[in-house]
Write a structure and sequence with these properties.
8% strand, 3-stranded antiparallel β-sheet, single chain, 3 strands, mainly alpha
Length: 245
Amino acid sequence: MKSFNRIFVAVILGIVLIFTFSNIYLKSNGDSSGRPYRVEINRIAEEILQNGFENIDLSGYEYVTNIERSDGSDSFFDGGKNDYSVREINGEIYRFDYVIDPSKSDSAIIIRVNIVLAIMSVLIIAVMIFIKLKILKPFESFRDIPYELSKGNLTAPVKESKNRFFGKFLWGVDLLRENMEEQKKRELDLQRDKKTLILSVSHDIKTPLSAIKLYSKALSKGLYKDKEKQFEIAESINEKADEIE
C-alpha cells in the first residue's frame, strides 16, 4: 500500500508538471508565433503596394474588417470598439480595424487544452482511487491469511466479502482452510489411534513375554529336575511364543 501511495503522489506531481509546462509552452508559442490578424494586415499591405488602396477587397479576409487612410484628423485614431493597427505604406498612414474570434484566440486554446488535461487528470485519479479502494485495500485486509494458514492457525474462519474481485478467492481460501483443518483433525485422530494400538499391543506382548522370561530363568537355574515338569515348562514357553506371534 505504501508503494502505491508513493506512485499516487508521483502521478499527482506529474499531472501538475504537465499542466505547468503545457501552459508555459502554449503561452510562449502563442507569443512567438504572432497573431493571425497580423498575417492578413501584411497581405493587405502588400496588395496596397501593388494595386493601390482603391482596389482592396476585404471579403476574403477573416479578421480585418475595415481600412481607413489618414486624412490628418484626430478622429482617424478613433477605432471605436474594434481593435486596430496602424501602418505606414508609401508614405501614407493606414488604420486596419480587425476583430478576433474568441474561439480562435490563444487564451481559448489554452482553456480548451486545460479542460482536456483536467478531464484526463480526473479520470486517471479516479481510476487510481478505484484501484486503491476496490482492489488494494481489500487485499490488504487478508494478505496475511496464507501466512497464518502456513503456521497452522486454522480455527478463525475467513470473513466473506462481496468484492467482485476477491469474493471467489476468499471463498476458495476459506474452503482450503476447512479442508486443512479437517485433515489436521484426521491426522490427530490417526496419531491417537496409533498410540492406542501400540499400547494395546505392547500390553498383550508384555504378559506372555514375562512368563517366557520367568520359565527360562527357572530352567537355566535348574529349579525343575523332573523331566515331565521340564516338558510342561517347554510346552508353556511354546504356547506363550505362539500367543506373541
